[in-house]
């Protein structure tokens, strides 16, 4: 049975339509279900409107005192759920309830976690402004950068529309903060098969958004907490140490070849950058993402190296261009090399981290 958990706070204007459409979607695919509405002391009659549908829809209300947050509402609703699958969605119709049918179908086909995704082919964000799209994409990329081994291969880890088998949450030690419960689940749940189903996020037509500065701050705190709790903070520290050694090799080798060995800047820079990339790759193999095996004999090392080199090509190119440009403006080789390394490193940090770490994700 599927237990649909819907957190609410002052959603009287839309809650009945949400419940009717959710029930119709699951009935259309012949799923047994219940709906658990978890309400944080709404003052607009939300709970009364829910209860008035009890004879039409299998729904019940869990009332909580005060505004305790969406993520904990999901856990409290799950604690009372009778189903072996949890479905989570918003009450405001920004998540089209009809998508529940597609999520349920994916669960039937063997998925352990199914995410309604805006960022896979077929998904979208309705009529969002470019500013809102940028904020959403930035938040998603930030999550994948902070937790790359967990989130780098997930298109929409920020989604609030998903289904998960209850068994995948056993012993998961969930401790969410704020409103992005899916981040907690992806990072800590025990699942084998994750599937993303496309949907188009709809604009709210009734009621008011609950997002504000507090929710954004809680999101950042939640990411930091997950980085520590999953151990990825320590992987980040190891990665940083490796990146620092690569920077030193890049700069030192370039300066030596140009100043001491008499090389021309172009071949010297190409060799220095490649030496730094190889250093970073093999130390990441042995140290950042250590496997306990001889690095040179580890299966797939050549494939991973080729992937790593391809991912780092844009940052290496930027390093090359900035260093060359700097040398035309300033004859000092050391400062030019340092400027190139900083530029290339910044590009990797801001854009490439999820893809770089995904190179080793299969070994974790």
Write a structural description.
By secondary structure, the protein is of the alpha/beta class. It has two domains: about 1-230, Spore Coat Polysaccharide Biosynthesis Protein SpsA, Chain A (Alpha-Beta Complex), CATH 3.90.550.10; about 230-364, no CATH class. Helices cover about 55% and strands about 10% of the residues. It has twelve helices and seven strands. It has helices at about 15-30, 45-50, 70-80, 100-110, 130-145, 150, 180-190, 215-230, 230-260, 265-290, 300-330, 335-360; strands spanning about 1-10, 35-40, 60-65, 85-90, 115, 160-165, 195-200. A seven-stranded mixed β-sheet has the order 3-2-1-4-6-5-7, sandwiched between helices. Strand 1 (about 1-10), helix 1 (about 15-30) and strand 2 form a beta-alpha-beta unit. The two termini are about 35 Å apart.
